[in-house]
TrEMBL record:
A GO biological process held by the record: lactate metabolic process
Residue span, 4Fe-4S ferredoxin-type domain: 319-388
Domain LUD: 72-303
Stretches with biased composition (Basic residues): 450-459
Domain of life: Bacteria
Name of the protein described by the UniProt record: L-lactate dehydrogenase complex protein LldF
Transport keyword on record: yes
Basic and acidic residues compositional bias, start-end: 480-512
Residues covered by region (Disordered): 447-512
GO molecular function: 4 iron, 4 sulfur cluster binding; metal ion binding
Keywords of this entry: 4Fe-4S, Electron transport, Iron, Iron-sulfur, Metal-binding, Repeat, Transport
Length: 512
């Protein structure tokens, strides 16, 4: 298996157009997201102080991001004092090189992995394979994706686009080439599928000498890393191997254990709709005694890969609050119909639409299209446990795409050219700005539109045809609001100052 990546995927509109024609995909997504959405709403409703908890999470994240350099240095000191080694990776290539060298130094050619968004982001599995190292995913959904030579399509449930029948067929045909084959007569019952995965993975857990993970949180004051999961595979990967390598985005740090408490309440209810996560694994440095649980050698790779650039954007930086709960995906009408693969990134859905263009830039057609992969309905903001205003950031990024110009991406200055088709939009926006800045021109335009309203087409010609194919242009009223106000109130809309000037000249206004 080559280890799939998202490189070279088409812009979102093209990928989404193909996805919405897949009726089985839409059925799988509708069922899964609807079920998760309903359970989450019930779990959140149990807490009367959810709004305050949400505000606390956002405040902690914002404070940490403002002083990120301080907390990262403090984290490095704590990890080092506990016997771990910290590596700094500026981009994906450096992170992959560091991890590959660390695995090679052990003499091993196999690793077991805990589900990790960061390693998906950098394409670590493909980099390891190119170096002759085989990585085994141990999360059930990630295992399904790997065996099917597929790509993840959801943050919480990477194989959400597959139904039980498809999973059974993948297990039957592919498990044997990766290790223990599926049992004879395997059905599509969830219990049987889970048991097949458990038997398949057990031999890998017992054989592995190197584990690779990410982390949901890192506590700066003690150097502790935290992984939350629901299957127990993470616990096996974090305790059995002799060497553990954790690749973690620099934004995952929290200052103290007291801060961690807030997120351990927010995350499970928002993601799996549980009051408490089934498995919460924490480790600090390396095991320092014979027979103690945990690895003898621990390495932490702190990943930037565009995060510092995102931090410099005062509007877009709130995307770095994300705790990867996936609540925004489960309420998004666009994601429910297009699926995760259309986003062309390890981060699908609304959060991916704002995070990916900041991490990768908007130079490519795919990345420039992502800020438009939304109806701006606002449902994502309403459910976000750390109050990321995703619609605000989407509009902000759309402005960046339209305007183009220079930007910093992964520490390098680059020129972002407006995406194809945005030249006309940019010209229209500039013309509108000029009109709004000149009241006389605005009044003349409004009167002209009113007097010619019977001549207006119901569908726009040329490039506007696509927009009006599913929308009707609103009817222009017989008179503008300005004219109505002047006729009814005797005021030309100039406001209190203009009215005061008229009264000083002895002019009467309308009804008071």
């Amino acid at each position: 298996m080559s280890g799939g990546t998202f490189l070279g995927m088409p812009p979102f509109p093209e990928a989404a157009a193909a996805a919405v024609r897949d009726t089985r995909l839409r059925g799988n997504l509708r069922h899964a997201t609807g079920t998760i959405r309903a359970k989450r709403a019930q779990a959140v409703a149990e807490l009367p102080d959810w709004a305050r908890l949400r505000a606390a999470g956002a405040a902690i994240k914002d404070r940490t991001l403002r002083h990120l350099d301080h907390y990262l240095e403090r984290l490095e000191e704590a990890v080092t004092a506990a016997g771990g080694t910290v590596h700094w990776a500026a981009d994906a290539a450096e992170a992959n090189r560091i991890v590959t060298e660390l695995v090679r130094a052990t003499g091993e050619s196999e690793v077991v992995k805990v589900k990790s968004m960061a390693t998906q982001e950098i394409g670590l599995n493909a980099a390891l394979e190119a170096a002759g190292i085989r990585a085994y995913e141990t999360d059930l959904a990630e295992l399904i994706v790997q065996l099917g030579d597929d790509l993840p399509s959801h943050i919480l449930v990477p194989a959400i686009h597959r139904n039980r029948g498809e999973i059974r067929d993948i297990f039957r045909s592919e498990m044997g080439s990766w290790g223990r084959p599926a049992p004879d007569g395997l059905s599509d019952e969830p219990a049987e599928l889970a048991e097949a995965a458990r038997l398949h993975l057990r031999e890998k857990f017992l054989r592995a000498r190197v584990g690779i993970s990410g982390a949901n949180f890192m506590v700066a004051e003690t150097g502790t890393l935290v992984v939350v999961e629901s299957e127990g595979n993470g616990r096996m990967c974090l305790t059995l191997p002799e060497t553990l390598i954790s690749v973690v985005g620099i934004e995952k740090v929290v200052p103290t254990w007291r801060d961690l408490e807030v997120f351990l309440q927010l995350l499970p209810r928002s993601s799996t709709a549980e009051r408490m996560n089934p498995y919460t694994s924490m480790w600090t440095g390396a095991a320092d005694a014979e027979g103690a649980d945990g690895p003898r050698d621990f390495h932490l790779v702190l990943l930037d890969n565009g995060r510092t650039d995102a931090l410099a954007d005062t509007v877009g930086r709130q995307a770095l609050r994300c705790i990867r709960c996936s609540a925004c995906l489960n309420v998004c009408p666009v994601y429910e119909r297009a699926g995760g693969h259309a986003y062309g990134s390890a981060y699908p859905g609304p959060i991916g639409a704002i995070l990916t263009p900041q991490l990768r830039g908007t130079a490519s057609g795919l990345d420039a299209s992502l800020p438009y992969a939304s109806s701006l309905c606002g449902a994502c903001y309403e459910v976000c446990p750390v109050a990321i205003d995703i619609p605000q950031v989407l509009v902000h990024l759309r402005e960046r795409v339209v305007e183009g110009g220079e930007a910093t991406v992964r520490g390098r200055r680059t020129t972002v050219r407006p995406a194809r088709g945005h030249a006309a939009e940019r010209a229209a926006m500039r013309a509108a700005r000029w009109v709004f800045e000149h009241p006389a021109a605005l009044r003349a335009g409004q009167r002209l539109a009113s007097r010619t309203r019977r001549l207006h087409p119901r569908r726009l010609p040329g490039p506007g045809r696509a927009w009006t194919a599913s929308r009707e242009l609103p009817e222009v009223p017989a008179e503008s609001f300005r004219d109505w106000w002047r006729r009814e109130r005797g005021d030309d809309g100039g406001g209190r100052e203009a009215r005061g000037e008229r009264e000083a000249r002895g002019e009467r206004g309308g009804d008071r």
